[in-house]
Amino acid sequence: MLPNFEDNVYTSQYCEENIYHLAQRMLAQPDSDSRWDINIIFVSNLSRTVALWNQRISSSRDTAVIWDYHVVLTLRGAFAVNRDDEQETWIYDLDTRLPVPCPWEEYVEQTFPGHADLPGQFQSLFRVVPCKVYLDSFASDRSHMVIFDPSHGPHYVAVPPSYPCICGPLAAAQGVSHNLMSDFVYMGGDVNGFGTVLDFLSFKDWCSGGKSVPSGV
Questions:
Q1: Is the model more confident about 31 or about 89?
Q2: Are 128 and 217 in contact (CB under 8 A)?
Q3: Comparing C-alpha atoms, which of 27, 32, 36, 70 is closest to residue 50?
Q4: Where are the beta strands (DSSP E) in the chain?
Q5: Structural domains in the chain?
Q6: Catalytic: 15?
Q7: Which terminus of the chain, N or C, has fewer Cβ atoms within 10 Å?
Q8: What pLDDT, in 10s, does the model give residues 140-170?
Q9: Which residues form the Protein N-terminal glutamine amidohydrolase alpha beta roll domain (predicted)?
Q10: Is 207 a catalytic residue?
Q11: Which residue among the candidates 70, 102, 131, 183 is catalytic per the annotation?
């Protein structure tokens, strides 16, 4: 049976933190390491303007949302040998109108319709990060959500979560307080970051089980 956390921690427009908490809960399940292959997917591009459909924040299913980045979680059976639910790649997007979790083919078709026909500035790249790497190395001080208004000074563009900022144990040990944008969202080839960056077709191939990515950084 697939994990289903309907009461997951959630704050609108803080997808990276919502998924961090979801990943923590998944890894806390008995035998999760041996049963599931869990990855965190950052969706963005060099211009930080990616078009996603079926997002709850949009006015309708037919209206795209242009995100600077988005974050989802993928799950599939680590050692499944048959075409069943546990071998399928499932996507957990806490901001979608689609079912959660959603089979990857349905999710990709409904979230990125006509992707190849989009102007390049709206096409997505996908950074695949192993779950444990994300939990250990992610850090955010939420400074990317602060803007300066001459009338009111600095303020958040969206109300931040009530809990403290997240800093994984390895990030904390290295004195890192914020690497969200540089090591996870950034999709350029001149900086390694964490995980592996895939284009749209390579991401679909990976979801189908046809492409492997490194298990570490």
A1: 89
A2: no
A3: 70
A4: 36-44, 50-52, 65-67, 70-77, 90-92, 102-103, 125-130, 146-149, 153-156, 196-198
A5: 15-136+188-206 (3.10.620.10)
A6: yes
A7: N
A8: 999 999 998 888 789 999 999 999 999 999 9
A9: 10-204
A10: no
A11: 70
